[in-house]
Design a protein that fits this description.
single chain; mainly alpha; Growth Hormone, Chain: A; globular
Amino acid sequence: MIFRTHKLPDLKAVWQDDERRKGLQFILSGVLINVSATLSAGIFFSGYLVYLGASDYLAGLMNNVASWSSILGIFSYLIFERMARRKKLLLTLLLISRILACSVIFLPLIFGVGDTTLIFLAVMSVAGNILWGFFSVGYTIWLMNSFPQEKRSTFIFKRTFWLRIAITLSIIGMGFVLDWTGKSYTGFLIVFITSLVFSLLDAVNLFGTAEPVNTIDPDKQFNFKAFFEPLRNLPFRSFMLFMLLYYTGLTLSSSFTSVYLLRYLGLDYSFVSFVSVLSYISLVVFTRLWRRVEIRIGTIRTFRLTGFIAILEFLFYAFITQNTTYLLLIAPIFNGLGNSGFNIIALNYRYELMPEKNRTVYEGWYGAIFGLGLLIGPNIGSMIMERLPVIENAVIQHSRFQLLYLLSFLLAALILLLSFRGKKTVIS
């Protein structure tokens, strides 16, 4: 009997090849920082707020704090465009921001559970994520400029594939930790400390990652014309407007999802984590599919198609009650199927719209507009919920949440229908 063996990659040879090592380091960085961010945000952060007794509004608003705090990142170009080497500053921003974001777990040890802890938590989270917004702009440009345009899209799909696997495993593991510890402070302590450790490991990894030299024009003057250039770029401006409206519509309701599942439906963390895992499994499975579809039908058509598929999740949520929790096993599959392509195409497409120079100000504007949508969404959603009728019947148990999900679906669908009409398809 003959056994066929497969030779493992020579890691020494990979590490000695500058290009392959750089790709491996950015994949590892994506795994570390995304796992870290996942464990200190989303369901884990919202669950911690519920544990501390935060209101629905505060929990919903803080659910997207990492995104809307990045609005001030719009001014990052004033710093980065003057620096040929940015790595030391980026590592400093990374460490301070993540220490602030993760250290909120120690506040109950100092102030106990109460309003004082919630105030300090909000301040530390916002401050840490403002710095994170500056870091994200510089890090994204560092990543994208490290690879030539013809290889960039393929690498982003590959990198995203691996980091989604890592996020999936982390959600499974920490969901069981929280239930195993009885949703106690000890469980949250383990989650947030693990998040901090992963951030520190990412800083070590990035310290050894090569940084391309950023071309600095000594004669270039920084003025309002340069600052507002992205707004004069019609294709880029239209794309930002689409993202603003699209995510404002979705976060009307999605900001309150963790609160709805944990506080109102009373679900266990292991089950809610499993729901998130289903979404990430779909993200992993279908990531490579959309690259092939994009090549076949073009960027714009694929972008709209994936968007329509992704928002079907909200239609399912409009009918989820304590009697129909089985729908939670279906809804995240549509989320993963759609967003596995939508998120990557959004990243690649916006870089195709940017000029080679002045990318920092473009990325800063995009982050600010995106964050603005995630800040407006929960505020408008909270106001709408207060005015929605209270209905109870065989289909509706918590009408304020369910009708809000339906409204999000209808708004997002309308925005997708009206956007990118007549656009030529673009192959990345």
